[in-house]
Write a structure and sequence with these properties.
2 helices, rod-shaped, single chain, 0% strand
């Protein structure tokens, strides 16, 4: 899996360029163009998966932060009661 979304986006752009070049050179239904298209599909799927994982991690961090704030408020209230 790729380290970052930016790295993966660059790889997607490169794969797209290779696919278009293959299509222009050997046709849209050539074996090479189809292979390049499948590789592009795989990279796009990987990017979508990475984005989804990133969003899940972001949501978990928000929940943990809210829990920390609530716990801090509770401790403050108990300490000053």
């Amino acid at each position: 899996m790729y380290q970052s979304q930016n790295t993966l986006l660059k790889e997607i752009d490169r794969a797209r360029e290779l696919m278009v070049a293959a299509a222009m050179e050997s046709g849209y239904t050539s074996e090479e163009t189809i292979y390049r298209s499948q590789e592009l599909d795989r990279l796009i799927y990987e990017y979508q998966t990475l984005c989804q994982e990133t969003e899940i991690q972001r949501q978990k961090a928000k929940i943990l932060f809210r829990q920390m704030i609530l716990l801090t408020k509770k401790q403050y209230i108990l300490a000053h009661a």
